[in-house]
Amino acid sequence: MLQEIKRLHFVSHGDDRGKLIALESLSEQVPFDIKRIYYIFDTTPGTIRGKHAHVKLKQVLICVSGYCVIRCDLGNGKAIDYLLNRPDQGLLLEGLVWHDMLQFSKDAVLLVLASDHYDESDYIRDYDTFLKEVARGK
């Protein structure tokens, strides 16, 4: 199964009145049809969110205010931290990517664009199960 983590850069349009970023499904910015949008905010200091992987779901994560860190693990023994601190940048997660969301600033708002509706059966919430799935190539 394909595993991908990719930094995305969004084109910002603006003038002296402010800036605007438009994101569209099935484009270079969002390479899937968006079926669900949610955002995380007012996160208690020290909280770690996520702590799971998805079987099929694709996501683009954008910190539209403040900052947070997304820790990604492909099951190869190396976790990589990605700082999201600009509304014109995102992180594409596709396939079996274990991810933790942490180090939220007080004003952080993390926006998530998802390729499908919520489906509990798509979640892998146990790290050992995740490692087994990666080894199987599921």
How helical, in percent, are the residues? under 10%
Q: Any idea how many domains?
A: 1
Structural class: mainly beta
Average pLDDT, all residues: 96
Query: CATH first level: which class?
Result: Mainly Beta
Shape: globular
CATH superfamily: Jelly Rolls
The fraction of residues in strands falls at over 45%
SSE string, helix = H, strand = E?
EEEEEEEEEEEEH
Strands, count? 12
Largest sheet: 5 strands, antiparallel
Describe this structure in words.
This protein is mostly beta strands and 138 residues long. It has one domain: Jelly Rolls (Sandwich), CATH 2.60.120. The chain has 1 helix and 12 strands. The strands form 3 sheets. A 5-stranded antiparallel beta sheet has the order 1-9-6-11-4, with no helix packed on it. A 5-stranded antiparallel beta sheet has the order 8-7-10-5-12. It has a two-stranded antiparallel sheet with strand order 2-3. A hairpin with a 2-residue loop joins β2 (13-15) and β3 (18-20). The mean pLDDT is 96.
Short descriptors:
138 residues, mainly beta, Jelly Rolls, five-stranded antiparallel β-sheet, 1 helix, 46% strand
